[in-house]
Amino acid sequence: MHLKKWSLIGAALVGLLLAQPITPSTASPQALDIATRGSISCASPTTDRIDCFVVGDDKQVWQHSWQSGFGWGTWVGLGFPYFTIDPGGGVSAVARDGTTIDIFVSGKDGNFFNLYQRTWNGTTWSDWTSLGGPGSWDIYELSCTSASATNISCFVRASDNHLWQKTWNGSNWSTWSDLGTFVNGGPFKGLASSNYNADSILLFAIGSDGHAYRRFYESGTWSGWLDDGGPTGSSFDQVNCQDQAGSKITCAFTDTMGDVWYRTWDAGWSAFTQLATPPSSAKGVAVAHYSSLGRVIVTNGFDGRLYRTFQPDPTSAWASWLDDGRPQDLQIFLPMAIKPN
């Protein structure tokens, strides 16, 4: 999310701003709403930059960015595509290297909801490119991840309730591969993907029982779905994951009560840990990393605003939730269409 022009908290915090993504709790001037479904995705091209994206009801993608030493900038609308973006599909962003960001959405230009890609090369945005869809099936949810400058893997939940994959090898996109159904052929939602080294991919999805389910790709083979459960008394709703240097991964979850949880991978999975309750019940969630150890979790609340917390390193406490407001525009962000599970 490209956001400029936030005033500094004060001279005493200038030094802190140079190292941490902290921002005054100042709302945008317009009383606008941001989607209450899983509409956020963030990418970290470098250790001192974060770019987050949302989809608006005006059918364009909006961007909000943080740069070390400058803080968060203003909202930037990325323009109107030639197709109709599906707000219910959300947006997925990946950083392939220090300058290149790819964003993916589902949209309709004809009879089916297909996958579309747009790329930032460090200077300009490309036009939108259609990557098609899995046969005659609509795309309901999507998540993409990148292991290197010449690799992207995109995963979608389609209207046949199968998981499908499409990969890019630096030159060409593959055809769609059917990775099969979910556990016992049941419904799932909240798809998340992350690379944890050049050849390995982690997937998370939420089952109809509210559990977190995990699947991974190693040595050319996909595992089955593993039931990781969840905190006692909680039922998960959405999930997002992002990798960090050293094969570390952070995954964030929202539950049906609007709380936010996270767990990490560092040679083993941590327990699910609950964060402080956001100012408004959380729906969508996104993770980003900064510096060598810091991480940020962003969520959108039922009040239509974005909220953000951060942890400078694994031994530090999480900051209080910061209010990032809403886009400064006449458009509003409506609740996401909830697709069949």
From TrEMBL:
Is Isomerase among the key words of this record? no
- Write down the species: Herpetosiphon aurantiacus (strain ATCC 23779 / DSM 785 / 114-95)
Q: What Gene3D superfamilies has UniProt attached to this entry?
A: Fucose-specific lectin (2.120.10.70)
Name of the featured protein: PLL-like beta propeller domain-containing protein
Give one Pfam family, short name only: DUF8189
Looking at the record, the residues that make up the PLL-like beta propeller domain are 46-322
- The domain of life for this entry's organism is Bacteria
Q: Which UniProt keywords apply?
A: Signal
What span is annotated as the signal peptide, if there is one?
A: 1-27
Entries under InterPro entries matching the protein: PLL-like_beta-prop (IPR058502)
